[in-house]
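Sync notes, pocket subgroup
Present: LS, DG
LS reminded everyone that the earlier model was apo-only. Rerun requested with iron/sulfur cluster included. Inputs:
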Amino acid sequence: MGGLFGVVSRQDCPKTLFYGTDYHSHLGTENGGISVFGDQGFYNSIHSISQAQFKSRFVEDYKSMNGYQGIGAIDDESPQPLIVRSKFGTFAIAVTGLIINKEELTQKLMDEGASFSEMTGGGINTVEMVAKLINQGDSIVDGIVKMQDAIEGSICALIMTPEGVYAARDKYGRFPLSIGENGSYGERGFAVATEVSAFPNLGYHFVKHLGPGEITLLSLSGLKNLKAENTEKRVCAFLWIYTGDPSSVYEGITVENARERCGRAMARNDDVKADFVTGIPDSGVGHAIGYAIESGIPYRRPLVKYTPGYGRSYTPPSQDIRDLVATMKLSAIRGVIKDSRMIVCDDSIVRGTQLKNFTVKKLLDNGAREIHIRPACPPLMFPCSFASSTRSKSELASRRAIRAIEGADIENIEEYLDHRSDKYREMVEWIRRDLNVTSLKYLHIEDMIEAIGMAEDQLCLCCWRGR
Ligand code: SF4
């Protein structure tokens, strides 16, 4: 989904920008970039991070930068930040999210005389598109509002001008943006981040979450609210289940606490006997701890992550790389696994292929007696339309099951969405057999919503309901 970090400071900021952006590395594996503004003007650095971590790519760059304002981004879709010369003067811009009606907007802007640089592969850089839409306004703020109105999808943006950093959250607040303040050493400064977990280690304390569509200017004069938040809200529920850092907080709800509540709910709905509970590192761990607390079954680690150097296996766009990461990153502990009955909590099942071919296989090869898989959300039924996502509908484990049951892809899957229906049970049983595990039981959507702790009509649940 990508992550953003921005800072304004009385001190030289590149080091803070470097670490603050790096704290978003779990949100993307393709592109990284930082941009600073200081007495010498704008300075930009963009690299591919598909073959190396953000830190190693940017460690020399940030040391050569000077400036008191900066923005950074991690993103799978578009290289950024971009430096743009416009009628508002020069600005740097970074965005996360997806524009669903990009083709239509591209055509409209080209009909009006705009031109776009093409990325490798022929696509239009989303950041350039957002910059062009903003330039259609009478001011930067008016332009951001016009951009928010024009796009279908979800765009969070940071725009850095000599005046400061404009932070704009997407219209429905699907993805987070929060503000922190640094009062240490009497040097007042502000930061804005997708993940509030970036703040404490950099000396910032949390000030506020931006609301849906809210626009705030961060500058050395303070925070200036330029547009109030919209009333309608649809925050991505998957943030709490999988995407977010465990130490992050969205809408005042701590990710780790929500994951523990998911695990507790799964335990309350379960009666399976096992020797221990475990979570697939990293995002399954919080769910499993909750399960262990509620059930009283001890937590153990049959699988450990070899090194934090291996990123998530679902984000790299190439299946080969996803498989390589999945093979290498988890080490099995035979002395824990052999002859054991285990409850294995995971955040979700996307395709199921990695779970089957790497995780379950490792457990079986090391003598597991029973494997009970417990995903902390219902079967994923739809790809995400609001952020770059590697899931395609046809690859999803649930869709493969439905195709096998029905003999073809079908449009109306309503029955499969209802966990009380026979069709749902048939689908889950097909996935269980495919995974080659003893049992499989998903968390129900009502329990997931309750565990997150937000009102249902304020959450985006499109992954599961398609609307
Ligand atoms: S579709 Fe899923 S991943 Fe995308 S914003 Fe909605 S809940 Fe989040």
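DG: The two ends are 19 Å apart (CA to CA).
LS: The longest strand covers residues 89-99.
Action: DG to write up.
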